[in-house]
Specification:
Elements lengths: L24 H4 L7 H10 L16 E21 L13 E15 L1 E6 L4 E6 L6 E20 L2 E5 L17 E21 L2 E3 L4 E5 L4
Antiparallel strand pairs: 1-2, 1-3, 1-7, 2-5, 3-4, 4-9, 5-7, 5-8, 6-7
């Protein structure tokens, strides 16, 4: 991704409350690849209150893009992330965000970009654009939107999330929750709106972090 012109953050800027911590109707119907029917089932069953991550999220969404993602050991299931008590970003949801959790045992990404809207400027992070790809193990993302051109090998759709076995120990979801898994996943033109990301190991060659007037 081409570098964006640097910009100095404005003094006193704060995230716009109306844009934080809300599960908007179009985001509640999370687009989990590969089928709209799978998405609908995920959104309904995540109402059981499964936690996607084990830490309190900030409630500030961030955008992640990559020209290509290749992964081995893929799992996906619904979840519910929770903000710290009294968070200014909780909106009218009580500090909870409906998410789809995606787990990849081993992942490689080309031209990774991550941006956070700080209200007037963006914190922009780029890596993996100089010939050496970003790599991660046990990569886990909690997303409200996901898009791209995806392909899977040996995909299974409709599993109980507690029985998943292709993505390792982190690829297990709550019992009774709809899920899917595959031996491999490839997504071109990946774009995600995330509330949390974790990884066992995350290698970012060519890392650049800066403030910018442009997002990913």
């Amino acid at each position: 991704m081409a570098s964006s012109p640097d910009a100095t953050p404005s003094a006193g800027t704060t995230p716009a409350p109306a844009r934080r911590g809300r599960v908007r109707p179009r985001r509640a119907a999370v687009m989990a690849v590969p089928a709209a029917a799978v998405t609908a089932a995920l959104a309904v069953l995540t109402a059981q209150g499964a936690l996607g991550v084990q830490f309190a999220i900030s409630g500030m969404p961030f955008t992640v893009t990559a020209t290509e993602l290749d992964g081995t050991g893929f799992a996906q299931f619904g979840g519910l992330d929770t903000m710290a008590e009294g968070s200014p970003n909780e909106g009218d949801t009580g500090g909870q965000v409906l998410v789809v959790t995606s787990v990849i045992k081993s992942a490689k990404l080309t031209s990774l970009c991550q941006s956070v809207d700080l209200g007037g400027t963006n914190l922009l992070i780029t890596a993996g654009g100089g010939g050496t790809r970003v790599s991660a193990t046990d990569l886990t993302t909690d997303s409200t939107e996901l898009s791209g051109d995806a392909s899977f090998d040996n995909i299974e759709i409709g599993n109980d999330a507690s029985t998943l076995d292709k993505a390792g120990p982190r690829g297990h979801g709550p019992r009774g929750v709809f899920s899917q898994q595959a031996d491999t996943v490839r997504i071109k033109s990946l774009r995600q709106t995330n509330y949390a990301t974790t990884a066992g190991v995350f290698k970012l060659p060519g890392l650049k972090m800066r403030f910018s007037g442009s997002a990913c």
